[in-house]
Amino acid sequence: MNDETVSNLSQISRLVNEYQKAIDIIKYKITCLAKKSKYFETINSIYGIGEFSASIIIAELGDINRFNNIKELTAYCGLDPSIKQSGRSIDIHGPISKSGNKYLRKILFVSCLNIVRLSPKCHIENDIEIYYRKKRNEGKHHYAAIIACTTKLLRKILALCKQLDK
Question: What pTM was computed for the model?
Answer without folding.
Answer: 0.86
